[in-house]
Amino acid sequence: MTRRLDLAMLLLLTFSTGMVDAIGYLGFDKVFTGNMTGNVVILGMGLTGAEGIPVLRPALALVFFMVGAALSGRILGDIGEAWHHQTTVIFGIVAAGCAALSLYVAIVPDPEIGLAGTIFTSALSALMGAQAAAARKMKIADVTTVVVTSTIVGLASDSRLAGGDSVRWVRRLLAVVLILIGALAGAATLLLNQWIGIAIVAVMIAAAAIIGHLGEKKRTRAEAADTVPTNA
Question: 17, 146 in Cβ contact below 8 A?
């Protein structure tokens, strides 16, 4: 039951990543803040001098994503695959950071332009790197929260059409659909205001942190009860 809860929370974070990347790409000059594969491709094209393709922001997004992931890995340490107190801490930091960025976007004039936009995409990339590192520690197969390319490969190559047994097809399909719907939702929020989407992302990540933490506490209590010797 605990692993199912962990899976559900990571799927929620996958949805939020779809929102984040849509907001970054459409609202902040073609920058992915969660999907670093996209940034590598954009950076490669930009370095050739292709017109209208940014270089600075994708490059900084890559750097800050790695910094966020490294710091998250340092905090998490060797906690194993189960949700841990440090997991809650990381997701709590990410949620608080997204909330702060939504306020930043709301009060800064033209937040997508110049240095203001670069600060936003770099900071959000660091937060997404921290989230991705925490998700990776949990080792939920096919759900990384930030990319679904390998998930799509698994969905197709293990399908019955390919002669496989369609193992984990439900979670794989959900991950793909949720990041798609998240991107749709993120793009829709841009029609209202840039800060709204980031605020919604902050709420979703905070909800995942709280629900996951409660699940972890319940698991810990159950394990403690199992170790208490019963009187004959």
Answer: yes
Cα radius of gyration (the chain) = 19
DSSP label at residue 219? H
Q: How far is CA 113 from CA 13, 121, 124, 146, 193, in A?
A: 27, 11, 16, 25, 15
pLDDT one-digit tens code per residue, 4-31: 888 999 999 999 999 999 999 999 989 9
Tokens for 60, please give them: 């900084």
Residues 6+ apart with CB under 8 A from 44: none
Phi, psi of 81 (to 5 degrees): -90, -20
Tokens of 89: 């801490």
**pTM, entire model:** 0.91
Cα angle for residues 156, 158, 159 (degrees, 5° grid) = 65
Handedness of CA 168, 173, 174, 180 (dihedral sign): positive
CA-to-CA distance for 84 and 189, rounded, in angstroms?
A: 33
- C-beta of residue 166 within 8 angstroms of C-beta of residue 174: no
Side-chain-side CA neighbours of 22 within 13 Å: the count stands at 26
Query: Token match 């984990």: residue?
Result: 168
Q: Given its phi and psi angles, is residue 60 left (phi above 0), alpha (psi -120 to 50 degrees) or beta?
A: alpha
| pLDDT of 227 above 80 | no
The HSE-up count of residue 208 (CA atoms within 13 Å, CB side) is 31
pLDDT tens track for 130-143: 999 999 999 888 88
Tokens 């800064």 belong to residue = 108
